[in-house]
């Protein structure tokens, strides 16, 4: 196996492949959706408006250049299919899965890295995904959300979301399972309720 300049880096004194090269290497082992999730984890970033800003391990352009540099590499078809669906802003594979399930229906793709601001223009809520045009915030709740401290933060977050005129919809792991994931019905029903309220002016 040969590496081009920049594809091997030092990390804590150990030589390892760069994040972009590692992602491409995984293309020969993962499904398209798994590789999308891996790509999301590599490019995830949050700006200064977030409580914990993050810089990406690599950019989508870095992944694109890596594909171009290795046209005959194993898994290239998977990599080329995955690349257009990678997005910046998903903090976990389950958030990626939620986004993909929604994006592949008539509901359309939710927005990542959206910031809900208060009346003074200050950042107030950071949903995992959102439909801003409907003021709908999606929050994926993993196992750690059962922790009492996290549960208290979640309640406060929902109160803030409600106060700012948005609707929060919590999504759980089993909502994403099956051939017809329940998340589709949850989001569809909530959006219909939002549209009815908008039409009635309430």
From TrEMBL:
<dbReference type="Pfam" id="PF04480">
    <property type="entry name" value="DUF559"/>
</dbReference>
<dbReference type="InterPro" id="IPR007569">
    <property type="entry name" value="DUF559"/>
</dbReference>
<feature type="domain" description="DUF559">
    <location>
        <begin position="133"/>
        <end position="191"/>
    </location>
</feature>
<protein>
    <submittedName>
        <fullName>DUF559 domain-containing protein</fullName>
    </submittedName>
</protein>
<dbReference type="InterPro" id="IPR011335">
    <property type="entry name" value="Restrct_endonuc-II-like"/>
</dbReference>
